[in-house]
Amino acid sequence: MNKSIRKAAVIGSGIMGSGIAAHLANVGIPCLLLDMVPKQLTDEETAKGLTLENPAVRNRLAANAIAKLAKTKPAPLFDNSFADRITPGNLEDHLSQLAQVDWIIEVVVENLDVKKGLLQQIEGVWKPGTIVSSNTSGISINAMVATCGDEFKKHFMGTHFFNPPRYMKLLEIIPGQQTDPELVTFMKGFCEKLLGKGVVLAKDTPNFIGNRIGTYGLLVTLKEMTENGYTVEEVDAVTGPAMGRPKSATFRTLDLVGLDTFVHVADNVYHNVTDEHEQRIFTVPLAMKSMVEKGWLGEKSGQGFYLKK
Ligand code: NAD
Asked: Does one domain contain both 24 and 170?
């Protein structure tokens, strides 16, 4: 297949979107990083007399995400100067620029309706031939493009990066029912050779492979902890480096992932399986849902199972 990816667009500048944009910059691919227009001014913007019409305000979410890259640990960029390869913006004002890239990656909140709406918006400006993918943790690839045209569906697949994108070698590629098999082969080769990933092709089943197993393990750990009275520190002490795993143990991983995202990901299996045993396993403990309601989302909000230092 005669294809190449010279320029990309990442939509959603949160934990994963900014990390994916950084990794693309690492390998020399310039990309747009687009997020939403903020709904409110910050105190600082108000003091400067700015309004919601000001471009600096409108592009603030993605611009802040790029600025944060240099301070994030472990470092998402090979070299902080590579941040210049990422152009921040907001989707509303820059939608038409999606026609100028070779790969569009959707990395917004884990919610089917939001993702569906966004993909319809993208299809409206989509240049035939452009690859479009989703970084969903486990929402159905087919469901996301159910209302899109056949040509768009041929160019759409899941490209599920793991957190943090620069360091985690695993990448799941999930073809939809109508994805062009030649494009899947192209993307597998591209992600392996250029992005340095170990690609596993996965079927479009709830949470694919990594998160079906991973979420299961985390929920079983939470259940055992509650029933046996283990502490967060005890569980992390035995499920982290002591067990040969990298730095992140159970609760440190949940704080890194984001508790809100974890709840969405576990709920996705709960709502998409009929087996009662599986539903029981994939039931998120109420205590965790109430942490999310309080805004304890993990590292991104400064408080999760741990306080961010
Ligand atoms: P996040 O909450 O950190 O960021 C989501 C971003 O999307 C926010 O900046 C938000 O403003 C933006 N957004 C929401 N709706 C938008 C829209 N309509 N248009 C433009 N921007 C919009 O979330 P995250 O952790 O980066 O997760 C993003 C996706 O990646 C989800 O599908 C998630 O399941 C998946 N994922 C997350 C992890 C993880 O460890 N956090 C790992 C793998 C995959």
From this structure: yes
> Are both 179 and 74 inside the same structural domain?
yes
Does the interface predicted TM-score (ipTM) exceed 0.95? yes
Q: Kindly write down the DSSP assignment for every residue of 118-184, as one continuous string.
A: HHHHHHHHPPTT-EEEE--SSS-HHHHTTTS-HHHHHTEEEEEE-SSTTT--EEEEEE-TT--HHHH
- The tally of domains found in the chain comes to 2
Domain boundary among 201, 234, 267: 201
* CA-nearest residue, atom 40 of ligand 1: 257
Distance 165 CA to ligand 1 centre (A): 13
pTM score, whole prediction: 0.95
Report which ligand 1 atom has the smallest distance to the Cα of 16.
26
Residues 173-179 have a mean pLDDT of 98
308 lies in some domain: no
The 10s digit of each residue's pLDDT in 48-69 is 999 999 999 999 999 999 999 9
